[in-house]
């Protein structure tokens, strides 16, 4: 492609509303343009990169045995009513009516559509398992679209769905898909982790997110310093490696703590450590009060708590609800002498406290020398806290570190969350009706493009990995008005194209500084420059990633380019 003919509107200034590097550089390099908040057009180079991301995803999905199809973006509300998500999904679901007043949704995801198709077409266990995928535009009315392609209202996604007659079959496909996802993100040279995660609005159990480690990520990952263990911090389990402090239990005693209500205030008032305090929080779980106890240096993990309680709805009690059940305001509540209507659940660490501090259910009063086995009763002990940096890794290898991550993929074991209410059934080997078991597997294709850009850049511009680069080689004639340089540039461009390389040729009548700045901004892996020595048959080859450059004869360019691209493919 000749650059003089290419639609490539580069920008010199950083757009004021672009907060992160990938957003800034994709705009500046002319890969995307914003049409509205969270809605973008992919310009020619952006589309080329997007197609290469899609191609890699498609290859690995096909290799994993999934079959590509295409479903409608416009979905009947009736299907969402069947699954129960029409109301529960929330305001992110874009809803509309047609001229006949029928309700539709713009597809945020396609569980309902694919389930309706399979239930109508598959009737026997002999046709299962089945794994289908599509690459398509999705729509979500994000409250705060931001970070360019990382959180938009319209985006490209690969979503796959598998259907099974046994749990063992789902488990096998789930592992196959996890391996396929790892292969995809390895092809893009991304620094990623597969992490244990919460299923959120999709539903189901047993799921993993694929997270690219990045300082601009919106999720925190807990990972081991020594092993491959990684989990979203909301899901990371804490192993029971506590020890009971030495010494005898002392008599419990009520003490005045004045206006101290927060953990740090109580610790300062009583001259104790935060891990010697029991933090008490009242929750309402499915309209029933539950007193939750954790150590003062720990935080309640509401996702773990909700799972342990098997609650549909879990909320922190309001001040009025706390006063009703505990007789005092939050900050001084505790587990001693409480109503039998209140369930008590304590984090495992609380069992290993001795002579601790806790609220006394009286204003400005706490107990010291509280021992839970003597002075109160925990109806249940469980892991209900957030993991902390420095905690032992749950797999027994190393300690926990934290990092931020960008979610680029997510795999779920849905089970019967959709197939049961939508009656997706089949006849088993005994001729009996059974409900299909489902899996769901998503990759944010446009988000992955942004994650690649976020990880591969410098202060001059983008640095595309070979797998997704818009062109393999960038040829530049420094002075297109100079006959020798123009002829050398044209000849190299023709030779490289004939040899099978995807080549961009900068033949524009621009100053050398503009051409080199644009080349760095666009980020093509290998650059060939025909400059002052073009008349002598000498050109310069430069590697965008390393900045390494050297001169070579024109006749050696093809071999040199092949060699450099092979090296880049291996790095």
Automatic annotation (TrEMBL):
Enzyme Commission (EC) number: 6.1.1.15
EC class of the enzyme, as a word: ligase
Single GO MF annotation: transferase activity
Alphabetical UniProt keywords: Aminoacyl-tRNA synthetase, ATP-binding, Cytoplasm, Ligase, Nucleotide-binding, Protein biosynthesis
Coiled coil: none
Catalyzed reaction equations: tRNA(Pro) + L-proline + ATP = L-prolyl-tRNA(Pro) + AMP + diphosphate
Domain Aminoacyl-transfer RNA synthetases class-II family profile: residue ranges: 38-465
Location, primary (coarse class): cytoplasm
Example of a GO biological process term: prolyl-tRNA aminoacylation
Quaternary structure annotation from Swiss-Prot or TrEMBL: Homodimer.
Record's protein name: Proline--tRNA ligase
Organism phylogeny: Bacteria, Bacillati, Bacillota, Bacilli, Bacillales
Gene name as annotated: proS
